[in-house]
Amino acid sequence: MMGAERQPTSDCRQSLQQSLWSQDCRYITLDDIVLENERTAAAMAGIALLTAAGEHKAAGDLIEQETATARRAGRRGAIIDLHLAQCGLHMTSGDERQATRALSRALNHAATCGSARPFYEQRLLVTNVLRHSRVKDLALASDDARAMYDKVVALVGAQELPATGAAIHLSDPLTRRELELLRMLDAGLDNAQMSGSTGISVRTVKWHLHNLYAKMGVKNRTSALARARSLQLLQ
Hints:
By secondary structure, the protein is mostly helical. The protein folds into three domains: 1-74, no CATH class; 94-161; 176-230, Arc Repressor Mutant, subunit A (Orthogonal Bundle), CATH 1.10.10.10. It contains twelve helices and no strands. The chain has helices spanning 11-20, 36-52, 56-73, 76-92, 96-110, 117-121, 123-131, 143-156, 176-186, 191-198, 202-216, 221-230. Helix 2 (36-52) packs antiparallel against helix 3 (56-73), helix 2 (36-52) runs parallel beside helix 4 and helix 3 (56-73) packs antiparallel against helix 4 (76-92). The protein is globular. Residues 1-9, 15-28 and 159-168 have low confidence and may be disordered.
């Protein structure tokens, strides 16, 4: 099913290699993968790894490359996944406006095929973006797109979120790393100090903090600590 292994040739794969894997590791490229679902899974994994490593440009390049490939192949579900990956990348970079635009593209495309599954699978991200977006900013292009928006809002439970962006119940538990960083926030450490204490890069610290804030329904460390104390996470 897969072709012979070879060294990565694109900047994306080279960046991934330098960031996460040993220099003598060999790769199976995306072009070697025949089955559609396997290619989508491999691409999404690569995007997630690059994003977690702080390689935002490489992640964006891979998203752009795979979106073009998915369009040529008519892989509509993959296109939605990739728009949501772009949305997550923009949120990680702190660009909420571009994240809203990426979510808009995902919703408008989903309206053409009726698929809401990707939004449920990325419900923490979707809920966080919706909390900071106005409906008119989503530029829903048709009645079908507006119906898809209503379906997604109901599916991810976003209709229960206060318009003020107040904290929500933690539907997903914090990871060990997120709890570790939360305690460091409580101790007053900044991102550089947390990086030095944990041995991970500042960009990766920011990535974990982004996920932490999304799960807690907050936008900054002060609100995160207040929410953590209300949930008794710092005892």
